[in-house]
Task: structure prediction
Amino acid sequence: MLRTVFNSELSGKRMLFLIIIAVMIFSISCSSDSTEPVVENFKLIFSPAEQTVPVYTETDYIIKVEDAENLFGFSAEIVFDNSVAELVPNTVVVGGFWNTDLIEMSIVEDDRLSITISLQQTSNEDGIDGDGELFTFTIKGIAIGESTLTLENLQMIDENGNEVSNYDELEITNGKLIVE
Result:
């Protein structure tokens, strides 16, 4: 016959020891020092995403980038419904994301803004990483209605003229203008 001897003091110490071990294992498994790579979210964003303005009112949009890697040049067309809105000439302002040695060109057309911004090769600067404002532009509501603002013919290149390394993961958040 098997006889169990119950020693409450010894049993309590074992229980406390097991609880401490369990808490340590749980803490280690939930630690933020994981060896798995962090997934970056490369994004281009119209900010604000949606605006409502009265007819004949001007408003600004900012084009922001998040999690860029080695960005040396940006080129795109912002397309919109020109029966609802028009671009205000000479209102493109390059954002602080770029350094001072850059080349910028913008062309305002009836239904689009074509823009190119690039660092200068002579500046000996590498591409830019991180988050920031690429540029700001002003648009004016000219008739009651809605217009989506989208990016077309987009190119984002590194200093060698190749697509930036995470270009295939790019998420784009379009803008919307509502004119009342």
Q: What stands out?
A: Residues 43-179 form a domain with the Immunoglobulin-like fold (CATH 2.60.40.680). DSSP finds one helix and twelve strands in the chain. The CA atoms of residues 104 and 117 lie 4 Å apart. Helices lie at 8-29.
